Amino acid sequence: MESETMNYKYLGNSGLKVSVLGFGNMTSGWAEGTEQWNFECMNKCVRGGINFFNTAEVYGMGSAETILGNNLKQGGWDRDDLIISTNLIPTKVIGIQGLSRKRLRQAINHSLQRLQLDYIDVLYLHRFDYEVPLEETIRIINDLIDDDKAFYWGTSEFTPQQLSECHRICEKHGWIPPIVEQAQYHMFEREKIERDYVPIFREYGMGTTVWSPLAGGLLSGKYNDGKIVPGRAESGLAAAVYKQKFDNYIGNRKEDAVRTLKGLQSLAEELGCTQSQLVLAWVIKNPDVTTAILGASSPGQLDENLAAVEVVKKITPEVLARIEDLLGNRPNPSMNWRTFTPNPPRR
């Protein structure tokens, strides 16, 4: 059921309508004792009008899907009102390696068991598989849709060339094409959504469910002093990924990054919102973004982030221009050689 406080868009050129903010439970899959707070997060999301929920078999080696399935049962929400998606990854995580016919048949059955569902609304290929013929993968995806185990499918972090090949294969065989690409997009990571994918969006009408809109929290305001949060980068794979992301976006360009972050904070205060709300509003303001997937380490974080929907109204052309001045990283558009006029030689 749609909420008056939430905005909704059609996912690509499909008839599937999703909230502009979604919820992903990657964090809950990697820690013990997270099922209850994940339920509290989902409950807040549903009350706030979010209908799109994303997970993946790789999150917690399947535990995130299990948690989501238990939470769906606990909440007792109308299944028809919710859009549930999961990602199948081309590596030996749970089952046989790759996105082969055998692997995908097994993988979706296992995912549905963990989720305690009869079907998935959107099934993602979680990265491209360079070893399995793409035609084999797309054929089995269409078979799964014919079997009502999935209704739509999409990709995650595919290149424009790979996406074009997906559509070419589907057109050749009369198969159902992907309707959505799931890519990283935030103020520090803009090239794919704002430049590389634009021809794909225009030609095929694909939607997007972008992940990490707050850059893993780096744009939330907690890092405006340019320092890493104590305890986040001590040990383990997750800590190593976090440290690398911090270094890429802040640590290796600390002076410029701090200037940008503090500028965003000042602009947010001027607009009467938080920095997180401003950053999220900027993401979903982009017409090529269908849904921005939120993560949370506690239910309290969602109260602030859900209000970003209202802040979108404050993102005027003037505000956008000021944000561009702060970021200084707007991607250059691809050259249109039909309209290119070289400078005439000087005499």
From TrEMBL:
The molecular function terms of the Gene Ontology recorded here are: oxidoreductase activity
Residue ranges constituting the NADP-dependent oxidoreductase domain according to the UniProt record: 21-326
Keyword annotations from UniProtKB, A to Z: NADP, Oxidoreductase
Q: Output the InterPro entries linked to this UniProt entry.
A: K_chnl_volt-dep_bsu_KCNAB-rel (IPR005399), NAD(P)_OxRdtase_dom_sf (IPR036812), NADP_OxRdtase_dom (IPR023210)
Pfam family, any one? Aldo_ket_red
Report the sequence similarity comment from the record. Answer: Belongs to the shaker potassium channel beta subunit family.
Question: What is the designated name of this protein?
Answer: NADP-dependent oxidoreductase domain-containing protein
Source species, please? Answer: Blepharisma stoltei
